[in-house]
Amino acid sequence: MTQIIFDDVWKEYGEHIVLERINLTLDDHEFLAVIGPSGAGKTTFLRMLLSQEAPTRGRILIDGEPIAPEPTADRGVVFQRYSVFPHRTVLGNVMMGPQWAASPLLGRLFGARRRAVEERAMALLTRVGLAEHAEKYPAQLSGGMQQRLALAQALIMKPKVLLLDEPFGALDPGTRKQMHELVSELWEENAMTIVMVTHDLPEAFLLGTRVIAVERPRKDPQAPERFGATIVSDYETKCRIVRDSRRFEADRAKARLTLVPDAFLPADGTSAAALVKD
Ligand SMILES: Nc1ncnc2c1ncn2[C@@H]1O[C@H](COP(=O)(O)OP(=O)(O)OP(=O)(O)O)[C@@H](O)[C@H]1O
């Protein structure tokens, strides 16, 4: 169970107000997509959730407690690129987090403990389709494979919150589609909340259970840094409608029912549709 609250959060760099009045309550197992124009502060929002930045004002609470001041293992992150360590093998990359967590001085485990971590890492690599590439180095992988590795690397720490910063931005459309499916499945399978920044509107509505748009509602042409961006739209209901209609479509396809427009015409002449068996 993970609930995240932004309570009147502001982020300023000197005179520059980047974000202001951010108020948001995220329920358990939410998939939040954050959209907005370039420079609106989306990455800053994510960095505050990672504790790489602290709010200038306001509070962020995770499960009722103030967010830890330092990054912790229960918050994982995947960036658009370079999340993985180039000099470690694929397997080594996935094993690294648990090894450092269990052995903070050496970053290495031995014997049965090492084998247990290796087994978990291999299971995850199988899950993301990289088992046969375990001994390769990241440079030998395609962009999509590197992102699958980055996901496995984050997931092995069993994060309560997974932060995704434009994770599919550098991928071609086919690979992107595969990654959408994988991330959706991983989100369903794991008890975690996802917060994803994206520039891609269809992607936001495809994956998100909630989509928020962040933008500057007030602009001062003389002093553009005087006002920060805030949440200007919250598409929670729209997401539910999109999700329900997708579920309806899936159920309809499963039951082999076809939607036929104008299958019968009501007496008042209005158009209608009916579901008929294939
Ligand atoms: N450490 C920092 N010091 C000063 N200003 C910063 C710092 N980090 C971010 N900013 C400023 O905050 C603003 C928002 O940056 P941010 O990267 O969060 O935007 P974004 O919405 O993620 O942009 P994009 O979509 O282009 O990635 C920018 O004007 C940026 O210059």
TrEMBL record:
GO terms assigned for molecular function: ATP binding
The keyword Nucleotidyltransferase appears for this protein: no
Top-rank lineage group of the source organism: Bacteria
Signal peptide: none
Protein keywords: ATP-binding, Nucleotide-binding, Transport
Similarity comment text for this entry: Belongs to the ABC transporter superfamily.
PROSITE patterns: ABC_TRANSPORTER_1, ABC_TRANSPORTER_2
Identification of the protein by name: ABC transporter ATP-binding protein
One Pfam family here: ABC_tran
Database matches in CDD domains: ABC_NrtD_SsuB_transporters
ABC transporter domain: residues covered: 4-241
InterPro entries linked: AAA+_ATPase, ABC_transporter-like_ATP-bd, ABC_transporter-like_CS, ABC_transporter_ATP-bind, P-loop_NTPase
